[in-house]
Amino acid sequence: MQMDEKESRPRVVIADDDPDIRRLVEMTVTNAGCDVTVASDGEEALERVRESKPDLVILDVLMPRMDGWEVARALKSDPATREVPVMFLTSRGQEHDVLEGFDSGAVDYMVKPFSPRELQVRVRAVLAKRQ
Prior knowledge:
Strand order of the largest sheet: 2-1-3-4-5
Number of helices: 6
Oligomer: single chain
CATH class: Alpha Beta
Order of helices and strands: HEHEHEHEHEH
CATH topology: Rossmann fold
Distance between the termini: 22 Å
Helix content: 40-55%
Strand content: 15-25%
Low-confidence stretches: 1-5
């Protein structure tokens, strides 16, 4: 029975180059009832998304090798990942940054520092829309 519950849990890929933030987001999203895969840079995020076919991707903007906006655009341009929702969780909070995030295909955008409870609510809302 446990196996069935785990298999039906939403899958989320989290990409952030800061290990402390990555662990906090991972714990928060896991506590929201999701199975989590993590990545520490943009290229690794693309690999993890292609491998795990997640229900949601949470991206930082400022990451090595490929920034979050580039990752989002790559996901949206690939027919295999086009429908996967992308949420940004980043310190980039200026209006032009938020607009860039939505222009790159995001369904949500949160600015750090963030409330873990708010992140859980937003993750659940995005996943509910996907069902």
